[in-house]
## 1
Amino acid sequence: MPRELGEGEASSSHSSGFLGKLSCSPVFEIVPGYNKNMTRFISGRGIGFAVAAILLISITSGYTQFLHVNQTTVALSFLLAILAVSAVWGMVVAIFMSFSAMLLFNYYFLPPVRTFTIADPQNWVALAAFLTTSIVGSQLSARIRKEADAAHNRRREVERLYSFSEKLLGEGNVIQLMNAIPNHIVDCFEAGAAELFVPQKDKFYRSGYGAAQIDEAKMKAAYVLDETNSDPTQLLHFVPVRLGVKPIGSLGISGAVLSRQMLDAIGSLVAIAMERARAVEQLSETEAERQGERLKSALLDSIAHDFRTPLTAIKAAATDLLASAGRDIEQQKELLAIVNEECDRLNHLVEEAAEMAKLESGEFELHLQPVGISTLVEAALSHLKKALGDRRIIVNANGDLPLVRADLDLAKDILVQLVDNANLYSKKEHPITITAEETGEMVTVSVADRGPGIDPFEQGLIFDKFYRGKDQRYQVRGTGMGLPIAKAIVTAHRGTISVTSQLNSGSVFSFTLPVALRSENR
């Protein structure tokens, strides 16, 4: 006669040695970003036992009362349920469910049914195999879930670090970066507060809220001792900011669950970003110094060339007058005319330098009024009458153009500079064309010549102070201040200025002025 199993006999005879080697897996790890209420619900072990019992009862009642299947189907159903539970609630619940399923399988599905007696010795093997498979499968399922959660956490950490590095790269200078770092840490790592200590300035940079919770003495200690210190109970972290092996500051972070590797990575990214910002600033300062030296050289070159020419002519004329007292009146008048002309030229150079300084400093006031384009063109051509001589000027401007809102004297200077340039850099037999047209709420005025054109590389530089074309700087007199003056005046009028040019075909300089308001036209 078969006998009933004693309490605990089956487990001791078939699985005690195997179970003794098992180590219980931890409860399901909470992955950042899940709904907190849901994770709190499913991570409770008591809920796991309840779900396991419900599944066991459902499978048993379903196969005993509704569906009559073979023993293999029942065993596989139990095994599938055990694997699902172990994936969510870990090994403790899975082992409970495995033993319970084994007992239910024996009681309800192995003959004789509704007893714990096993008539066929092969069923002992089947029962042991079922228990072993369910426990091993549960362990593997829990391990896979744990590794998946770890991989998910690592991916989340990488994503956060990437987002953090992107934000660090978006900052401009060092001061802006240091002020922004704590806020970026709070945003990217879901921290409650963050603080940055920079020993060079002995200054703390805090996030917009919650920084009062962070102990600044511990931040200094993290920098001095060059070691990371975390308090998991209060979610406080103090991290040295290292550039290589040298600490250059420290971070304090509160309210965030961060691993040691994550903290080290944050400190390294902050150090690299600070060093990069310093390097960019130094490079900018070096570039500014280089540009300053270039401008100084250009100014000295301009002074040496453009001031020396009239001074030489004046000196020669004055010397000739002094050496030849017996010259006739006509010769003396000719020499005096040279002196007068070169003095005017010197005066013009000084006036341009003074005007450029005035425009750059902003020490001028616009007297805006409605001005007609025809009035503007006539004023400019009248000013250049002597310089243009009999040069042919073509004006294409419709009579129905709207008035522009401008300071007549300054706006006239824009056109004077452009027409004078066209006159200097193109042959006298070629005409200069002035065109005006309405473009939306602006009026665009263009000056076209048939000169040698401007190299594409130089088109972005000709509006810089003292810059003159490399092929023309010694052939045509000038200071390199005319176009910068025109640009400054146009900008003050809220307009734009540009150039379109093609080598050996000529250039077109265009500027815009705003249309006058209707109320101003009355």
## 2
Amino acid sequence: MTSAGGILNSQVHPKLIALSGPLAGSTFTLPEKEGTVGRAPYNWLSIPSSTVSRQHFQFELASEGWKIRDLDSHNGTLVNDAPARERLLNNGDQIRAGDSEFVFVTEEEDLPRPSANLADTDLHTLTLYSREAESTLLQPPPEQAPPAEQRMRALLRLSAALQSALDRKTLGGQLTSSVMEMLDAERVFVFWREHGGVTEIASAIREGIHRAAVPGTVLEMIWVSGKSLLGEAGTVRWVTAPLLVSGRPSGALYVEAAKLLEEHLDLVTAVATFSALAVDQLMRLEDLRVDNKLLREAAGLAHEMIGESAVMKRIY
């Protein structure tokens, strides 16, 4: 459809957001017309997992929209938890292949783009469209939105918030409050290993909940295995995931809630995956700030520059 101002609406390429599996926390823009997904490196999207077939499924752009087609995979392809040989995709559809889960995301409305070269067009005849810099996907979803879309939007909002955090208190607060909201949790803790011990970076506890400290054996299992765990102790159900840095558990995200299922294990793992780097960077930054303060105090410097060369003296 073309508007009176000469603006042509055209479909924006959808995105694929990984919620769990080796690619958790990553976002991919679909190719122009088609693309295969599987374990082999020659696919458009390669998933390094033995639970995924060499060529597992394929995206295809048809006249009526984007379709997904299973490529005779060993474990099959699920869309919204239902086996799918071939079907049309809708915004918010949840796709599972082996241990990897994705959400298919499209814009809620077409984005207009010019049909002519602006340099050759009279600007007074153009109808212009604009959108706020913050994507609508970063806003809370409608109440009737499917669970997969609600989780996807919550993950995107959390990811954006973590990138703007400047200290561990702010980051920890954003992380724990987001997880409390996503899982309707009772207690959430973020732990970090440093200086030979374990530090509690942040916690969030629902009003009226009184329990003992997090069992040390649970954290010990995280440090040893480096894997996410789902369990229960009496009437308390918990899930915990490692904060991996360079493949090693440097911290842990621990959650207690009344209703925790295997799908929540995937969600907490995804949150821990893209939170780990943000936590690590802030912890390193805080260490550098402390070292810099101690160095300046020891040197008795009145300025922030270090060095006695002629060049440095000219600077300060």
## 3
Amino acid sequence: MKKILSFLIICFVAASACNNENKETIAVTGILISKDDLVMANIGSTQMLVVTIEPSDAANTAVEWFTDNPAVAAVNANGEITAVGEGTAIITVRTIDGIKTATCLVTVVGCCMCDILDPCVVNPQLPSDRPVKPGYWDYPVDSENRHIACQIPEEVLFSVSTEELTDIVLRYPNLWHPFVFNNLNTGGNVLYDEFNGIRELFKREDAAKELLKHYNCMMQDIYVFWSNPDMDPLQVGGFIMDVRVLEFLLGFLVQKSEVLSKKDLKLMLQCLVCAHEKEFECYDPNFQYPWLMNFYVRAHVIVKMDAKYLEIIPRNPVGGPFNNWHTQESCDIINELSYQLIK
């Protein structure tokens, strides 16, 4: 019996050795990389590249990673890329066996909102002698008549700076009303028709920059609201609503304004991309609602930049691009187009 057992063990060892020898002879014939072109926004952000070795049963699947421009993009042993500085870099992955290579062109767009816009300084309160301060002075509680009480007198409307006018508009108490409509465009048109402050603001050439300054300041506060577990949920909810309202105004400005330049649109798209990256770091990725307005606005900006993209971005049944309707596919398309256009 012992002889038979010994014989079986010898056969097993021999067979294993034979299999190992055969496996060692399977050489690497190629390597594929998950992306050959990558755009990254925000210095310090990261992206992971994944490689596929061919054949899948190759004996030695070890790889090495390299960057030709570490001042722009760094890469670690796992294929994680970190945006270091603005510019381009070529990331190369190379197999140990066979010296097979694949590359990815990385473009880092230095679009930190703090760098794009002026420092975060907004007008916290209008001078006390201003005759109109929507949201701060007495007005009828009846929402149907509230907008009448909050109209800005013409002598004020045409004399205030765009900075002051933006501050007045953001205090308008009915600013959130478009969100009670089934269609945001319908709600936006009602808001536009009922408040002369918005109509005047959207005629100003510097309206986009002033709204983005406020947006910049709010997004700098996002970590405060989401990193503090003791923060009142009502405050967090109010902050999210304020961000969404401001994003809606940016999107509606794109639709209504006749004076937006291509530079304004690119700046807006850059800020929205950066803001989404900040949001993504804070929000639960499975909870999509908070950032859907961001995609809604970007869809309108992209189409405004070039109408040809209207054929690419999915449309909802009533015809508006990305209006109160979304899928993961449409989000991915808008994301991809955004990064292409802010290069």
